[in-house]
Specification:
The chain has about 675 residues and is α/β, with parallel strands linked by helices. It has 3 domains: about 220 residues, Class II aldolase/adducin N-terminal domain (L-fuculose-1-phosphate Aldolase, 3-Layer(aba) Sandwich); about 170 residues, L-fuculose-1-phosphate Aldolase, CATH 3.40.225; about 210 residues, Rossmann fold, CATH 3.40.50.720. Helices cover about 45% and strands about 15% of the residues. The protein is built from 25 helices and 18 strands. Strands 3-2-1-4-7-6-5 form a 7-stranded mixed β-sheet, sandwiched between helices. Strands 14-13-12-15-16-17-18 form a 7-stranded parallel β-sheet, sandwiched between helices. Strands 8-11-10-9 form a 4-stranded mixed β-sheet. A hairpin with a 5-residue loop joins strand 1 and strand 2. Helix 6 packs across helix 7. The longest helix is centred in the last third of the chain and has 29 residues. It starts with 6 loop residues before the first helix and ends in a 10-residue tail after the last strand. The structure holds zinc ion. The site of zinc ion (ZN) has 5 residues, from loops.
Amino acid sequence: MKNLWSDKDARAFTRRYAKQGVNTDLALRVYTTQLLGGEPKLVLHGGGNTSVKTTAPDFLGTETNVLCVKGSGWDMGNIEPPGLPAVRLEPLQEMARLRRLSDEDMVNAQRVNLLDASSPNPSVETLLHAFLPHKFIDHTHANAVLALSDQPGGDAVCRQVFGDRVGYVPYIMPGFDLSKKAKQVFDENPKVEGLILFKHGIFSFGDTAKQAYGRMIRLVTMAEKYIRANRRKSSVSVKLPKAMATVAEIAPILRGATTHGGKPMVLDFRTSKAIRTFVDGRNIRRYSQQGTVTPDHVIRTKHKPLIAPVPEAGKLEAFKAGVVKAVTAYEAGYHAYFKRNNAKQKIRKTELDPMPRLVLAPGLGLFGMGPNAKAAAIAADLAENNVDVINDAEAMSTYAVIPERDIFDLEYWSLEQAKLGKGAEKPLARKVVVVTGAGSGIGAATARAFAAQGAEVAVLDRDGKAAATVAADTGGLAVRCDVTDTASVDTAFDWVCESYGGVDIVVSNAGAAWQGRIGDVDDDILRQSFELNFWAHQSVARRAVSIMRAQGNGGCLLFNTSKQAVNPGQDFGPYGVPKAATLFLMRQYAVDHGADGIRSNAVNADRIRSGLLDDGMIASRSRARGLSEADYMGGNLLKREVTAKDVAQAFVDLALAQSTTAAVITVDGGNIAAALR
Ligand code: ZN
């Protein structure tokens, strides 16, 4: 592993933070913490922690000895000084004299000794940092070290590789007991540069940030060299069918089967050579079911991944039946795991949901799963990490980790669960929404409105750049798509399934207004309008419905029709006629797919600035009617200008209206001629 320390960068950090009143110790602590956190083979997503012993003024201005240690909820890769809260050092060190300390008392002692009461909770490994004498201490869950440790006799392998450069700490759950044990191991040989925590990770320490970081890199490099020299076996793959089903075909099936209590997961697909070695391996049922490579992954990935059946092309019904069976078995296995281990707890725990967070799909790759796209991506990142470690361990020996009761203790440890930060979910959390024509106007406002309600939004637009801008705003997925081209629609929906696992709500919004007197208008114009204002709605809805039926969770289709569909305007036939057909298309979907739990509704909007009306059109139309622009735009019963946001809100309202189908909501400020009867 490359040592990325640069004197120049270190000076730049020191200078930059000095301006903010941050001392050199803490500035350099931030620098190397970011260096470690930027390497996924060392730590990922909140894993690992670092500290520095320094001084800071207390509330009286007295320089006080403190431990600045990583706070819970911060990522090492992008940590800043507030992510390393200062805790009074001496009281922490004195706690080493205690025989026992409960987790609650430990957390309390750490909090009451914070210099800043608004700081995040110091790491659960704070006492370990405090009990060791070194100024700088680094802790990671380095893949290479885990690959050595996570095998039968892994302790001996580690001793062979690192000799007496480091101390060796048996597996103990983080907290007071581990901190005491680490101190004891260190005291037996104070010359060591670091500690190996079996089946957990590695600590390195030093007098300077550079020394502690350099030792971490050197120790990890020693482990990497050993692995390279000792890979003995290559993995044997199962025989796969000639043609595999696609990711887009199987993702909605997996998503449907893992929906628990009406709550679907969001999926994130990954594949690579290493992942394929792992998921195609003949021994997948053994090595994939041992547990996570380091215990704290369990809160995001669960103890074991689900193994899907081999997805063969053209045999999706058999695949679905296999998945349902596998999920049922997974659930039963999780209940049994909970029951077995909860029985041994002093304080009984409440069972978490029994659904997997990882699915292995032989022949294709793996899926991370979670209540939102971010959680799914974190699970998938951790899975990739686990794949690397397990592949290496299997190449040397066999993969083996701590017993399940230790994993259970960590999964159900309140201090670990606190890292997930449970808030109430937003109304459309876990839902995947596709909005067409979402690069601007009503579509963009709709994408934003759905994202604000917690949905994962795929922003489809003919203009890829416009889609990217809105997607960046909403944290969504930008997809370039020409809705009048069925191949483009199919590709777009495939991409949405690969990115999120399926589709729950579609806002078929893309449209454009063509004009012409119906007796004179060119057939080409009318046909062109039908392509976009009718056929595109059909291609989008048909593809969405096929995905929704594969999921089996119902669904929601929303169409942007227009006042023209109900109340034709003069010379607007080319626009209104296909829109009228789309209004009936909406009803037909409601009739034919109601039994699938799929609702179908429309919004009937009129006179929206930044909808189909651009400023030039508004000016010319108001002039033609002898009205001011404001009077023209507010020419409705409410005398109120209707905005794209109003239309977006109507789409959201319909998405939430669980018992409403075949309805049209009017968003036009009141136009009695366009009222539906
Ligand atoms: Zn750790």
